[in-house]
Amino acid sequence: GAVMLRSLGSFLCLWALRLPVAPAGSGAAAPGLDVASYRERVRAMFYHAYEHYLESAFPYDELRPLTCDGQDTWGSFSLTLIDALDTLLILGNVSEFQRVVNVLQEGVDFDIDVNASVFETNIRVVGGLLSAHLLSKKAGVEVEVGWPCSGPLLRMAEEAARKLLPAFQTPTGMPYGTVNLLYGVNPGETPVTCTAGIGTFIVEFAALSHLTGDPVFEDVARKALKALWKNRSDIGLVGNHIDVITAKWVAQDAGIGAGVDSYFEYLVKGAILLQDKELMSMFLEYNKAIKNYTKFDDWYLWVQMYKGTVSMPVFQSLEAYWPGLQSLIGDVDNAMRTFLNYYTVWKQFGGLPEFYNIPQGYTVDKREGYPLRPELIESAMYLYRATRDPTLLELGRDAVESIEKISKVDCGFATIKDLRDHRLDNRMESFFLAETVKYLYLLFDPDNFIHNDGSVFDVVTTPYGECVLNAGGYVFNTEAHPIDPAALHCCRKRKEEQWEVEDLMREFYSLKKTKKFTLKRTSNHGEGESPKDPENAPSEKSEEKRNSKKNSHSLLSCPSQSFNSKLAVLGQVFLDNT
């Protein structure tokens, strides 16, 4: 194995000499790369596709751009409309955003006899609705009193997510890949699910749990993540497909691309969203194994998960998210080098073929297409935020020119079936409007609200106190739907938090307002509880001290008057000055 790897390594070194790999940070911006004009071309691209979808394909899931009609693909819920909703706001179109919110509320129904992909429904539908819900106030929608802890789009997201829960009822906690939205998991459903289809829920499901107060979503997502972690190989890798009943790996190829990709992405994004060290340490462990076994000259290959021997020396277009993910953990130099390798492939074909044979430097048979995927543009957007390297804008320029030249048709933009002869396919995936156009626009729009650095924000009053929203730091789900991490702290209804509030309410069950808003205890013991030492009952202050030391609370019922508290991280209580 080692000899084979060494020889492959030296072969790749020799081969690398053939490909022009630009050094990181090289090249000034193309003379006269007018960012504003490219931004406007991206906007025009969005509307060309979006308006034809509405005209020719709505209420179907997707537009068929060559025949100017529509088809249902992933379900039957006007998928492109849900997926494109937050892009409308990022482009600044509040009136259409508001109109679509009303259309979706009236027209979308998840009580349908449809077999849906658990993964796709989560990232596109649940993710799209959650993101739109959290952005709806910014878009000028009249929101409910309890927003962001309630609202029609949140109820729709929750309803869609509930339809997916039956898939998680397996001995391992790893979900089936397909679920019937009306009847649950079909008898005879295959138990084999890809790794990404198991590990790509924590962003949406944790957000749902925090907003609705129902912990079930975050719980199942975490259980699935942990099951994958537990079943990694001795050398620290995970394969491509696993049996969710027996936990046996069915496809044992390990890599960063199709079938695995967003599992790694969600460990990082889940860690950031939830400030969760455990998720991040899982990722960093994987990252070491990935570097050790799959990385050669800033390319990543596929290897056998138990032995580490190379199984496929191919680059898949889906892997192009990896430099963006590396930039999120601060590994910008490595990210940039890998990005530049991928960019050479783009320049060779005017797009990224689904598979690219690294040693041969050419496409793989039957995998020559480019369905207008966003991943390389997504990485460019992240890396441009990190480095401002003008090479990244050049990729954006190339993408706009390429997509317009090859893919644009009268009725929208068509999947490129073959990058060698530019034949087209009669399909426009919903991710074109959700992701590709969004990341392109954000690359060319440095002042977009999404890039907010925290210098401006909104303060929202919820039934649980005030919270800060729209301060930036958005975490994009894997379908490019931004989730505001601050929103997760607005709705303190979850079990632990509820318990904490109840404890605090018990501890300070009587609030006597003095000028300083000090908190006083009116008696030393609870109902039906005799004081421990009646002879020398301690003063209130020392009782309070002793109680907080032991963290024992008197069992008192809460008063019925409204009690508005804010919990800081360390559990202090601030009373509203009202």
UniProtKB/TrEMBL annotation:
GO MF assignments: calcium ion binding; mannosyl-oligosaccharide 1,2-alpha-mannosidase activity
Signal peptide: 1-24
Active site: E120, D261, E354, E375
Enzyme class name: hydrolase
Pfam family, one: Glyco_hydro_47
EC number in record: 3.2.1.-
BP GO terms, sorted: carbohydrate metabolic process; endoplasmic reticulum mannose trimming; positive regulation of retrograde protein transport, ER to cytosol; response to unfolded protein
Biased composition (Basic and acidic residues): 524-546
GO terms for cellular component: endoplasmic reticulum quality control compartment; membrane
Protein's job: Involved in the endoplasmic reticulum-associated degradation (ERAD) pathway that targets misfolded glycoproteins for degradation in an N-glycan-dependent manner. May initiate ERAD by promoting the first mannose trimming step of ERAD substrates, from Man9GlcNAc2 to Man8GlcNAc2. Seems to recognize and bind to exposed hydrophobic regions in target proteins.
Name the UniProt record assigns to this protein: alpha-1,2-Mannosidase
Organism expressing this protein natively: Uria aalge (Common mure)
Lineage: Eukaryota, Metazoa, Chordata, Craniata, Vertebrata
